[in-house]
Predict the structure.
Amino acid sequence: MIDLLEVKRRYEAVLAVEDSRDKILQNLFAQVESLQRALQNTLGDAKFQELKKYKTEYDDLRLDQSKLSFVSVLVDGDCMNFNDTLIRQGYNGGRKAAMLLRKSVERHIRDIDPQASPNIQYRIRVYANVPGLMKTYREAHILRSNEALDPFIRGFNMENSLCDFIDAGNGKECSDVKIRATFEQDILDVHCRRIVFCGSTDNGYARILGSHQGSNRISLVQGAPFAWEMEQLASEFQTTSFPEVFRSTKLPSRASSFSAFKTASANSSPSSSPTSLSTPSTPKRNYATIAKSNLQATSPTRTNRSKRSKISVITFDISPSYDTHIQFNTVQLNNYEDRGTAVDIIF
């Protein structure tokens, strides 16, 4: 059974709290009005009205700035690679990658910047050497040899009007140059509330970020482990990771893939190739074979080994037909009865 006295007592306690709250609000309003009158008396009506005008303009400016505020997301697509499953899904994978990246950035901003406008814009730019990146994905067997990266890029660009996957050019440093220029532009833009930087494995970006150490407008995203210089800077910025978007390891390098291909080719058996042809090997010419052939061509016939023959000297040039650093002078052929024929080569 309900105790009416207890309910009444609790109700009166609530009324007392409500009354106390109302009195606090009334006192605050009275205090504000008193301060305004004191300020107006001190400044005079003209200056007080001017101050109110400035405050109104400031509030309007803050409102306009919040409408134009944006978060810049910069991604080096050459070293910050999207997950394999997204790449393999082509067009749909591109759309999903853009959506997941945007949601991950939104979640990160809510965690570290609660004052950010809920209507803030997110500008996402991915720069990459597209032909080289596509070749790397193929060599890593993420894409088949007849598959292209274009469907993924098309899906990424079509997911949101502020998501751009851009071919920076066919060169090693093209992406770096584009990202550096965009970063320097955004960091000076008063409407840019934060830069989310995705390029963890490239030490070159330490040159860009070094002069902004301690900035509360920069976040570093880790995919594959930070390069050494980037790791030294990571403690100076907000850091995060988006494992549902980016790979946690590097793609195999093109150089490694090429070396592996050469090694496999060298280890394969020649008989396994039906089109392989064997060519006869030619004997290698050296000084001994040249001397022997010349000796056979010019050596005199000995008719009587029992008689002592005179010493005959035959001089001929055995210089090879190709250039060498060794100069040959003469060859003496000495014939003696008791020891046959001997050839002394004099250098």
Observations:
- The beta strands are 70-76, 121-128, 163-167, 192-198, 218-221, 238-240, 330-336, 340-346.
- The mean pLDDT is 78.
